[in-house]
Design a protein that fits this description.
about 230 residues; Arc Repressor Mutant, subunit A; Four Helix Bundle (Hemerythrin (Met), subunit A); mainly alpha
Length: about 230
Amino acid sequence: MATPDPALRTAAPRLRVAVPSVAERVADELRLQLAEGALLPGARLTESTIAEDLGVSRNTVREAFAELASERLVVRQPNRGVFVASLGAGDIHDVYTVRRAIEVSALRGGGSPEAVAAVRAAVEEGKRAAAAGDEEALGSANQHFHGAIVALAGSRRLNSMMAQVLAEMRLFFHKATVDGQFYHHYLRDNEAICVALEAGELDRAAELLLAYLDRSEDNLADVHGEAGTG
């Protein structure tokens, strides 16, 4: 048997792992703050303040703003600055179309025991927040629940897409949470979906989630429609 030429071994291409740039990491942090409700629609974002808080250059923050603007999460207003986007009723159906595609599909596929446990953890987080009367924490727990649903698929790309969706959803929800019990309406749904998932009843879990998303879209459309006519 012929011995392989050492030169051929050294000529093999090297695998490269993509490392997120600093600007991408800043964009990730701002997306997270949006999803957690820390940044409100219409709030002005200042390059110098964010750069100081995160320990990066203003140019890096500017690059992160450009990425978020391409996702419609922020808007740049000439001679005024960069502001958190205020999404309208016309955006709701589009976002929910994406949610149905990725959340329901991920749920139908099930997931590892660890991934299922993360869904349960988000449900329990919501129960604790509700018991404490902390509506903001309950909103964040609801976000974590839906993020954990998508994480069942074990796909970094889907997780990245969902991060943007969660940020957009929190922008919608700010207007809806004038109703102090807004997030409480979803606690029972989250529990039922999780129970079906834990029992391996994936089709039932997916059906429950689909019905949940339909109700949620109708609810938000009503809220934003009424706000638009007020």
